[in-house]
Amino acid sequence: MQNTIIQLGRKAATPKLQNPGILLSPTTNPHFKSSSPPLLVHGICRIPKSPNLERRALLSGLTLTAIEIYNQNPTTLNPIGKKLVFEDDIEDIGSCWGACFSIDAIAWLGVAIRPYAFMLHASLYQYVSNVVYLRLEP
Amino acid sequence: MEWATQIIFTYEEVPESPNLEIGREFLRLSAGDMSYQNGLFQCGIFLSAMLPTATALRYERLEEAFVLVLADMDRGESISVRTRNDFYKLPPGSESPTNLISNLPFPLNEADRKAGGAYRGAWINATLAVATPFPKHVPNLFIHAVMENYVSNVVGMDLIKNQTVNY
Is residue B105 part of a domain? Predict the structure, then answer.
């Protein structure tokens, strides 16, 4: 089930990142309605190469945290889990490794009773992304 | 990955509470009193927050609106917890079920982040305990705090030298 939440690979809407870190792109349609297409949040991370770090394990610590705004309850997910990561899923960007991913927010956070709103962010090692505000409406 | 013991939060300023530059940073996290014995990692967490009043007044109890995220990079696991003492229950009707007084504007007003204006703060202290195997890399545990779109600094935990790394 977890493997449907994240897709690896660069997409047209993947943001650009110049420095080491992690970045999520705000969705073009953050007001999600049941008739809308899948609500994808695109992200990119860039981590300096290190002898202690294995290329294919770069994303294994990727953490997504969504906080429901009405009661501030958090939910955390490691979307990679047992998903296979191939060598070419990780890009060489100068002295860094980089990876692009897309998160299907409805596959993860879909709830029956709407409206709901979430603050979503990602973290990897010492890097924390920007926070994306999503509203799920009837 | 689970918390090994019940987390008890206290909400007063203590000598270990980090100082922050009001208006330029909103949340600052520090950790101390680390120990790692028999696979059990424990540390004290101290969070100082000073948020724009427009944001802080949205919450009935601001100190309960933060979230701590702890990630274990070696094992690819993470946990999060809201800074609320949930081991007691007040009688029904005596507290708001949502802790939210007014709804958040959508999108959020980024002008709140600009320096100037009034600020309102909170201090949060807790002792975290989690079972984790001996690390392959150091630091392998990273913790940060978040509230709405305000994110604190990240603190890494070096379990071998029993010291923290502030980013």
Answer: yes
